[in-house]
Structures are given as C-alpha cells and as structure tokens.
Amino acid sequence: MMDRGPSDFDIKQRFIGTFVWQLPRLAHADPLLRYVAGGWEMSGLVTIQTGPPLTILAGKDQSQTGLTKDRGVISGDPYGPGACGSAAPCVNFLNTASFSQPATGGFGNVGKASLRGPGLGNVDAGFSKSLTLREHLQVSLRAEFFNFFNRANFNNPVASVSGAGFGSIRSAADPRIGQLALKLMF
Predict the structure, then answer these.
(1) 76-80, long-range: CB within 8 Å, 24+ apart, which pairs?
(2) CA 14, CA 167: separation in Å to the nearest integer?
(3) Is 86 exposed, middle or buried (0-12, 13-18, 19+ CB in 10 A)?
(4) Which terminus of the chain is more solvent-facing, meaning fewer CB atoms within 10 Å of its CB: N or C?
(5) In sequence order, what are the residues at sequence separation of 6 or more whose Cβ sits closer than 8 angstroms to the Cβ of residue 1?
(6) Is the pTM of this model over 0.90?
(7) What is the pLDDT along the chain (186 residues), one digit of tens a residue?
(8) In angstroms, rounded to a whole number, what is the distance separating the alpha carbons of residues 84 and 90?
C-alpha cells in the first residue's frame, strides 16, 4: 500500500501557451526610426505547472530488510521553514521538525509521492526582424531568451531524512540564457 501513488513524472496541472506578436512597421515614421524600430516580431512560449511528486525517504535501512527505500515518519505540517539553518545559498521548503526516522524494524508512514515540490513558471521569448539590403540580399536578425524574466525555478528539496540539508533546496533550473543570430540570405 505504501508503494502506491503518483508516478515520479506526474504533474497535476500544466499550462503551455505560445504567442506571436508582429509589432508595428511604423510606415509613417521617420525613415531611420522605421528602419531601426519598425517591423519586429516577438514570439514566445509560456509554461506554468505545479510541482513534481516528492517522496520522503529515511535514508537508512531502518526496517533491517536490506531495502534502502524505507520512508520517513511524518508527524505535522510538512511545509515550512527550518531546513536551511545558517546555510546559504538555500531555500527552506520542508519543515524538518515534522519528520523523523522510523523506529528500528519500522518502515515509516510517508506514502509514495505524497508531497509536491515547488512549481514552475517560465517564459521563453524571441525577437526577430528581416531587412532587405538590396534586391537579392536580405539579413535576418534574431535574439532568443530562455527564462526571459529570470525567474528562479527551484528543483525538489533534499528528500532523505538522514541526508545533509534535508528539506532544503540547494539547486534551481537555468537562469536567463540569451543567444543572438544573424542570417544572410542571397
């Protein structure tokens, strides 16, 4: 019964949307302004989702069965401060006072994937513009940004009761990454 629960890749709610926005060409503006600022296209991908499943393990063979996947014991509200202490960089996620090791010979009472890690919110964006330099010569400019708003999307916390840093989050997904491209077509 303790091994029944959501799969490790179960995401309860997920929204993915795309957009393309063609910015004004500024047809009646000054030629220099029209050439530099007009005719850009913005596109993007928005992803928002709930956190992945999280199973709290004892980290030791408390059941003395040779299994290394014994679960921890939960006795209170699982989420809250107390995991980081004075460690930095660190994000408190689980209330470590609510968890303990099972008694010797016990298996613990935390079910498989009974908790959820932090959710994710991300926007990837691209900006592009094509310019005609001569009749058969065009230039295409493109700038792409992954995690455009540089939001911290945290990974799951340390999930082993006996592990160092239990309940704390010590890593995150990539910060903003940008790339530029120039394409010449003739």
Answers:
(1) 78/115, 79/115
(2) 25
(3) exposed
(4) N
(5) none
(6) no
(7) 567 889 989 999 999 999 999 988 888 888 888 888 888 999 999 999 999 999 999 988 888 888 778 899 999 899 988 778 777 778 888 988 899 999 998 888 898 999 999 999 999 999 999 888 888 899 999 999 999 999 999 999 999 998 888 988 989 999 999 999 999 998
(8) 6
User: CB–CB of 51/117 below 8 Å?
Assistant: yes
- DSSP letters spanning 153-181: -B-PPP-BTTSTTTTEE--BS---EEEEE
Residues 6+ apart with CB under 8 A from 174: 146, 147
**Which are the contacts of 120, defined by CB distance < 8 A and separation ≥ 6?**
47, 48, 49, 51, 153, 173
**33, 38, 64, 117 from 93: Cα distances, Å:** 50, 46, 30, 8
Tokens standing for residue 23: 């910015």
| Residue corresponding to tokens 């099972």 | 102
